[in-house]
Design goal:
The protein is an alpha/beta fold. The chain has helices at residues 20-29, 34-49, 87-91, 99-105, 107-114, 125-134, 367-374, 380-396, 402-416, and strands at residues 2-3, 79-83, 95-98, 138-143, 153-158, 165-166, 169-174, 179-187, 194-196, 199-204, 209-217, 222-232, 237-244, 249-258, 264-273, 278-287, 293-302, 307-316, 324-333, 339-348, 355-363.
């Protein structure tokens, strides 16, 4: 297991209003190379120049940032631990390490991706730049072309304080015809209001096979304002799973760029929320190339006063012919005070498509299902847990990895309860 390196001298940094001197001090304290210090300053300037969401954008109408703890101090003791890389894969050139260590040991691999000036996902552009300026931990995974990693790789990033801010950066690069599976976990303590602003960037080159799962277990006062980008190359296949369990407020932006002919993506999500949690996800499946396929399935179970919103956009570009895409969002309301807003949107700019559609529902458990389960000897609570677990199985099993399925279902049990013996 490898643990992310930490800075020697704490630097206080208010993410909402940091200045170049604070960024320079952060980079200096960490002993970083000059190119990275310069890149952080560039990103800080872009962050300052990029407007925050005003709330009038369709993707931001359902989550206000008015109570975001913008003055939370930077958590410089947040850590990332990675595990699961076998010696054979390492010998074949696979790099799997905390990001700071990758900067030191493999700058030639990391630098092109950290200095890539392509703007982040449009809905989260300012937060993308913030993370690139102020990250203190994160994950780097590089798989060379034609290399298959058999075992599931695991990374776990943990904030040390509940009332702090952390902006971990994850970079995953899968070379041509490679295969890899990564499970990432993000956690923080319960307690004060904190800010988690992690970003994930997955690049699947031609013919690669990538499975990426994110398990969010942040503390009960955490604000998660995060973004993910997945770029799918020609004939590549990418499956992602977002399991959202923790946090007080989550606002996640997911962008999938179907950039190469013949690429396939599957976006999976499970949300289990209770108390007064609010989980708001916006996604875009951007079909840029012909003969691409992109399907999305997000499922939520909402207890107490929890509320979820999902705004999903499928965009088929004029130059993308013979594409296939679908988005499906289902919500189980397990309390009369819970609520869900599934909003699917299609933008089809060509007549030459194979399929493009959507489906969305929100409602209580079918009473016939409950009755049937109880006729088998289950109590009402046991029947509800069994039905919710079965509801989630559809998405969790689709990741195609038993270790990930088992870990996510175990984590979900903290919210939905254990299955009856």
């Amino acid at each position: 297991m490898t643990t992310g390196a930490q800075t020697a001298t704490p630097v206080r940094l208010s993410p909402a209003a940091f200045d170049p001197s604070a960024i320079a001090a952060l980079s200096s304290a960490r002993g970083e190379p000059d190119w990275l210090g310069a890149e952080r300053l560039t990103r800080a300037e872009r962050y300052r120049a990029t407007p925050w969401p005003s709330g009038s954008e369709e993707e931001w109408r359902r989550t206000s940032l008015a109570s975001l703890p913008i003055d939370a101090p930077l958590d410089e003791t947040a850590t990332t631990e990675v595990s699961g890389l076998d010696p054979d894969a390492a010998a074949r050139g696979v790099i799997f390490t905390p990001l700071a260590e990758a900067v030191a040991s493999h700058p030639e691999l990391v630098r092109p991706y950290l200095t890539d000036d392509t703007p982040g996902p449009a809905t989260h552009a300012t937060f993308w730049e913030l993370a690139r300026a102020a990250w203190t931990t994160g994950t780097f995974l590089y798989v060379p072309p034609q290399v298959t990693v058999e075992l599931v790789l695991r990374a776990r990033t943990v904030q040390s304080r509940a009332d702090a801010a952390a902006f971990p950066v994850t970079l995953v690069v899968a070379g041509e015809d490679s295969q890899v599976t990564l499970l990432e976990e993000f956690a923080s303590p319960d307690g004060g209001a904190g800010w988690f602003g992690g970003t994930v960037n997955v690049r699947a080159e031609r013919g690669s096979r990538v499975r990426y799962a994110s398990l969010q277990l942040l503390g009960d006062g955490a604000w998660r304002v995060s973004a993910q980008r997945v770029v799918v190359g020609a004939d590549a296949q990418v499956t992602t799973l977002n399991a959202e369990i923790g946090s007080r407020v989550t606002k996640l932006g997911v962008e999938v760029l179907m950039a190469g002919k013949g690429g396939t993506s599957k976006l999976l999500g499970v949300l289990a929320a209770g108390d007064d949690q609010k989980i708001d996800i916006n996604s875009i499946q951007d079909l840029l190339a012909s003969h691409t396929t992109s399907d999305l399935l997000y499922l939520s179970a909402l207890y107490d006063q929890a509320h979820s919103a999902f705004y999903g956009l499928t965009r088929v570009r004029p130059e993308a012919k013979q594409t296939s895409s679908y988005q499906e969002c289902r919500n189980l309301l397990l309390s009369p005070n819970a609520g869900a807003e599934p909003i699917p949107v299609l933008e089809i700019e060509t007549n030459d498509i194979l399929r493009c559609g959507h489906g969305a529902t929100a409602g209580a458990i079918d009473p016939i299902q409950m009755f049937y389960a109880q006729t088998r000897g289950l109590t009402a609570d046991e029947a509800e847990r069994m039905i919710v677990r079965g509801f989630f199985e559809r998405a969790v099993a689709d990741i195609g990895s038993e270790p990930i399925r088992a870990r996510v279902l175990a984590a979900l049990a903290t919210r939905i309860g254990q299955e009856a013996a």
